[in-house]
Specification:
By secondary structure, the chain is of the alpha+beta class. The chain contains four helices and four strands, in the order βαααββαβ. The protein has a four-stranded antiparallel beta sheet with strand order 2-3-1-4. The longest helix is centred in the C-terminal third of the chain and has 19 residues.
């Protein structure tokens, strides 16, 4: 593992200096899941949840969350995001919801944290809007599944 880039020589936290990095097109995709009871999925599918349009509200919350990443994560650079797309789909096999986010920018640092934040905030919003009908829900598997730009693409093409 490489040296920790967010610590200076004395071990103090610091924001990484990216001023010498080239500006490149950068993307990141993250995914996660909200696992719940099959009955909860049915309520959402039929539009009978107490708090209304939970999927569209959570998708919007995810977009808003991505835009606030630098305010939430202390050493993240504030970025001008070119695209944030959040998609939530019903997954009867879980049962629950599959959540994905794609984030794009042109800049000197990547957007993995923004994609992770988008998925996390969308999942938390779903949880908040459905907790009145399902106390046993759980958020799982939030991870970056791809990134492009900068030093490397992952997974490698």
């Amino acid at each position: 593992m490489s040296e920790l880039s967010h610590l200076d020589e004395q071990g103090r936290a610091r924001m990484v200096d990216v001023s010498d990095k080239p500006v490149t097109a950068r993307t990141a995709t993250a995914e996660g899941r909200l696992v719940c009871a099959a009955e909860t999925v049915t309520l959402v599918r039929e539009g009978r949840t107490p708090k209304g349009a939970v999927i569209s509200t959570a998708e919007l919350a995810g977009i808003m969350g991505a835009k606030q990443t630098a305010s939430l994560i202390p050493l993240c650079h504030p970025l001008a995001l070119a695209k944030v797309a959040v998609a939530i789909t019903i997954d009867d096999a879980l049962p629950g919801f599959a959540i994905s986010a794609e984030v794009r920018t042109s800049g000197q640092t990547g957007v993995e944290m923004e994609a992770l934040t988008a998925v996390s905030v969308a999942a938390l919003t779903l949880y908040d809007m459905l907790k009145a009908v399902d106390k046993a829900m759980r958020i799982e598997g939030i991870a970056v599944v791809s990134k492009t730009g900068g030093k490397s693409d992952w997974p490698a093409a």
